[in-house]
Amino acid sequence: MILFVDALTVIDFSYLCAKRGAVGESWIVDMTLHGQLNEESMVLDFAKVKKQIKSIIDNTIDHKLAIPSELNCQFAQNDGRVTFDYEFNGHHLAMSAPDEAVCMVEGSKIDEQSVIAFLKAQILPQMPDNVKDIEIALRPEETSSFYYHYSHGLKKHDGNCQRIIHGHRSLIGIFFDGVSMPRLQKEWSQKWEDIYLGTQEDLIEHAQLKYVTANEGDYAFAYESTQGYFEMSISQQRCEILPCDTTVECIADYLATEIKKSYPNKQVKVRAYEGVGKGAIAYA
């Protein structure tokens, strides 16, 4: 017997890429379970599928930075902390954070297939005996519009958004007087392709870093939150500093305000997404 659940959940996370650095991503998860009927004449109760499997995904990869095990970077894990230092395409990225901010995925790169293998290894052993196999499909949101990949961290968040490098694949809509402006949408999606969005008040001097080093052309960030102490350094070319927190509400407002500066006679509306099917709208 086969049980399927489409769009079980969305994984919002970032991963390290040999060419692109930290890449924010959002994948929709489709799940298929193969097995025998249990005493309830079910393979598995849909409520348990949604609760139990989503919980496993949330605890293993969602809102984390995924690092491929074969990536050539300096990596250390001890005393409940993980630290890495990485050079890519002439850029630099380093981070130190509590262990739960990172997950290691077997292989040379992070893609749908490596993450599917990782998730299957996490999920299947926790399924009841009548579930004999599972299939997982990961897919981005279908769209013909423009989007960008961003990473960030939210120190004021009570949950996992406080992890300093996690991210999303996000659509962007820009409107002048109610009319869609695809040229500007494309312009901002290209400007923010694989961007790290940093908060100005989290900037520190290089000498204040405790665990990682910074190159001359880096920004350095650090903050303390409920999950612990986070810090990072990143090449300035891969980062945009916002004068506010990087919640999707603030991102939408920042974009509307910046665009309004160049088009003062237009009513500007920005529809900013945080991953799939959620976001914020701001006007200027």
Automatic annotation (TrEMBL):
It comes from the Bacteria. Pathway: Purine metabolism; 7-cyano-7-deazaguanine biosynthesis. One of its GO terms (molecular function) is 6-carboxytetrahydropterin synthase activity. SUPFAM superfamilies: Tetrahydrobiopterin biosynthesis enzymes-like. It holds the Pfam family PTPS. It is an enzyme of class 4 (lyase). It catalyses: 7,8-dihydroneopterin 3'-triphosphate + H2O = 6-carboxy-5,6,7,8-tetrahydropterin + triphosphate + acetaldehyde + 2 H(+). Its EC number is 4.1.2.50. InterPro entries: 6-PTP_synth/QueD, 6-PTP_synth/QueD_sf. Belongs to the PTPS family. QueD subfamily. This is 6-carboxy-5,6,7,8-tetrahydropterin synthase.
